[in-house]
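Hi Y.,

Following your request, here is the sequence exactly as I used it, all 321 residues.
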Amino acid sequence: MINKNKKGAMEFSFGWIFAIIAGIFILSLAIYGVIKFINLERQSQDAQTAKDIGVLMNPLESSFESIKRTMITTPAQTRIYTGCSNETFFGTQTIRVSQSTYGEWSEDGTNIYFQNKYVFSENPVEGKNFYLFSRPFELPFKVGDLIYLTSTKDKYCFIDSPKNIEEEIKALRGLEESKNENLFLEDNGDECPEGSINVCFNSVSGCKIKVFTNYKYVEKNGKRMYYQDDALMYAAIFSNKEDYECQIDRLMKRTEQLAQIYEDKSKFIFTKTSCDSGLSVSLIQLANSARAVVNSDSIGVIYSLADDIDRQNDYSGCNLW
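Below is the corresponding structure, written out as tokens. Let me know if you'd prefer a different format.
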């Protein structure tokens, strides 16, 4: 009797131990499944947010206003990662986001690809409120719109900026004061907001970002990015060298193709109307020059050629653009 009781007790104990182990295993699987589902859902939300950001950029590309800035707000603290790839012919712009939930950042989201966007920003740029503004890139016809993305958390202080830049930033800021303002104009660094990213022009020293208007380059993190117009100057200020040079390559490939299209258009107009724009040879030269650009150091030549072509087109009896 005692043995049976002991045996029964042992059997009872083993049964419970097995049930507990099985329960723990099943519970672990359930928890893993829930976590997996939550992560997939967060990745899906991140991907949708990246798509939404891309869509919100569309009005900036089609705007006929000289300059315009808009704010986008995300539901949670967000890190926006922008990337550039020139592996395909026209290259791609990538946007992905990571969002914070209960103090934890989601895993790196899915890259969303755009072939017709050129975005310049820090990588990543973090916050809930973000400013976007754009400038057209023309050589001399419109090649694309350059879009600049900044967080309202990042304060940019432009010190001793040229008159045209000062007027443009005032236009971007508008007339109303905003607690989210992140662009400032000052005569010296002592007047800049605390913790701001100072952008110095020419002889001013002690800044993270230096713009040398005489030599047409921006120095940032010890690296130089060359520009020729204000559109590329802003791109260099708000971006990093790797992405900047990649976007230059993409823009040159697009310039090459557009020059060839306009050259074909010139021939077509001549066959239909006998009106000769006189630009065929120059457009071929422009296409070849764009193909030869390997980085921002060598873009000066193509701008000179583009200016000559633009003047010829203005005086032509059959304008191509």
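Residues 34-41 have pLDDT under 50 and may be disordered.

Thanks again,
Q.
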